[in-house]
Amino acid sequence: MASYEDVKEESYRRLGRTAKKWIGWLGSMTLSLMGGLILAWWELNYHLTNHQQWMVPLGLILLVTPLIVCFAVFSSDFCNPNDPYISTKNPPDTLPDNPFHDPEI
Predict the structure, then answer these.
(1) Residues 31 and 62 sit within 8 Å (Cβ to Cβ)
(2) Average pLDDT over residues 55-75
(3) Mean pLDDT calculated for residue range 47-73
(4) I need a surface site. Which of 14, 35, 43, 63 has the fewest CB within 10 A?
(5) Which of 96, 69, 67, 102 is CA-nearest to residue 83?
């Protein structure tokens, strides 16, 4: 049976991981929102005269990059759910000493 200190330590570890995920998600969504706002601002103020065109690629990059990164992270976890080197859902207790094949050994 686990002691109170062990349970408390595990709950703090879980809270830290959850907080890091939420901070990352919030940062990604804020960056994407900034990109959308830059595009909207350009559309409302400069589109008719085609000035300040540097705002369009910047806004698109800020808008789309967090979505591509989220898709890459989720698809890699989906494609290899049992790989101990990629997945963080079920970390292995022990890893092999040499996970890579070296033909010279």
Answers:
(1) yes
(2) 89
(3) 91
(4) 14
(5) 96
